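Entry 12.
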Amino acid sequence: MQTVSLEVRTADLALLGLVPEGLFDKYEEVELLETLRLEEGWRLQLLRVRRKGPLKTASELERESRRIRSLYGLETFELVERRPRTHDYILLVRQRNPERLRRLLTLAGGEISPTAPFRINSEKVIATFHGQERALRRVLKRLDREGFPYRVVRASGRPYVPDEGATPLTPLQSRLLARAWVMGYYAVPRRITLTRLAQQTGRSAPALGKVLRRAEGRIVARWLVTEGTVSESEVSDLSVPREP
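Predicted 3D structure (tokens):
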């Protein structure tokens, strides 16, 4: 498996139909948090969208839903969270893939998925993809033949993990814990139930609950070591059972 990060001009990415015209008149940045489903014809993604001005209320977004979907080419969008302090929306968005992207996905054969870091502003895009090396090479060769300009800024045999080593979590724990946080499971008051979160992850509520509790336990244990409350050896005795 390989992870490749590319730097692309936003104007060039717009040629693929991935950046709606006029998007950055009102918004500063779009960040892909997670790709929940990727098919040749459509994609379902969790996005962080930073607005230039004050955020609209949830009711205002609901009233303007049809106009927003038409303006930005969305099939559906759902407001997951508003973050007024940072002017961010967290949105669950479903979009149809433009024809050029469909051809690239067909070429990838389901062996590549966009992943973090994936950020878009008015000038440039940092786009990261993880998958089989042979599939990544096929897609990059196609982009080269089509004259699509890009620059490789990172290539690694390991997935991108921010602050690697900061928490003693398995990849599955890290992924599901991040999803739970982004979707508002840890917000006060809670914005999503365990049952609904489990539906989003394709797991049963009891199975997801076990993964989250194990992850939470290991984070707490690491914090206790940092505070000197327990020893490193006590933490190392924690088992890391196979996730369901």
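Annotation: Residues 2-156 form one domain. Residues 34 and 179 are 8 Å apart (CA to CA).
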